[in-house]
């Protein structure tokens, strides 16, 4: 069964409220949906979001990559040669991880439909219910406190706080939220590369001295400054997670070699899809480093793919899958569903969209 066409379409999705980090503010997302069509009429669905500030991928660039080298490499290829297909996708052009992720997701959806299996079973997993955290955007301390209380009232018992600005205000952000939600709600901090090594160590030691326990500090320093990342990990007690420093399997191997981190945040848009995301989880498992599955501010389609991978890989132990909850109605049917903090997927073949 061969691939007969690959089609991409653009859409814009509105967010319910602005999403703010140390790097950017997002009010809408530009999504590229991809359909991989086979000769028997099967259609696999995938999507990617333009994330110029993180991966360097624009909507126009993603479309050019899919309609150019990716389509050229995959058109009329045999769907039964799964690993060969995915390797051709990976090697057809450099970079363009978002575009590759969209097509990789669409291929996995089509593979699942071909074998009448949900993607998590295709990848060797069992159906499970995951518990996601909820992100609290960076804002004035009082506003973050108010939002944290609202999210806990919705049923979330782990919050990820965006920090990475001036130290005193960051400290007040964490302190205000901690005072409001107490010790029953877990806290995770994400600096989005907002500090240098010395700033990060000073801030984290201040948290430790104040007895404010958090599950981890995510990407405290610049993605490319691995010496600073190691300096932070070597000089604090709280666990350190890599995000922007961990795009590809090769980058993750370097993190392992340098003993830089306690956790790695896997995102399909960074990795280029499910195949390479799974490789990252494998590498980390071999090194004894647990992983979190996360996402950019993305569509429910790619969010669903991330949830399927999380159900399939035993080394993905933490879940940051709240992005679809930030979207206004996407008009999609099927895929992942939420009940408070619980994330579930269906038993339908592929990703379960219809």
TrEMBL record:
Residues in coiled coil: none
Sequence positions that bind substrate: 24, 135, 160, 295, 297, 320, 322
Transmembrane segments: none
Co-factor requirement: Mg(2+)
GO molecular function terms attached to this record: metal ion binding; racemase and epimerase activity, acting on amino acids and derivatives
Domain Mandelate racemase/muconate lactonizing enzyme C-terminal: start-end pairs: 141-239
UniProt-recorded name of the protein: Dipeptide epimerase
Comment on bound cofactor: Binds 1 Mg(2+) ion per subunit.
Family: Belongs to the mandelate racemase/muconate lactonizing enzyme family.
Alphabetized PROSITE patterns for the sequence: MR_MLE_1
Gene3D superfamilies on file: Enolase-like C-terminal domain (3.20.20.120), Enolase-like, N-terminal domain (3.30.390.10)
Any one biological process term the GO annotation gives: amino acid catabolic process
Annotated EC: 5.1.1.-
Positions annotated to bind Mg(2+): 190, 218, 243
Catalytic machinery residues: 162 (proton acceptor), 267 (proton acceptor)
InterPro entries found in the cross-reference section: Dipeptide_epimerase, Enolase-like_C_sf, Enolase-like_N, Enolase_C-like, Mandel_Rmase/mucon_lact_enz_CS, Mandelate_racemase_C, Mandelate_racemase_N_dom
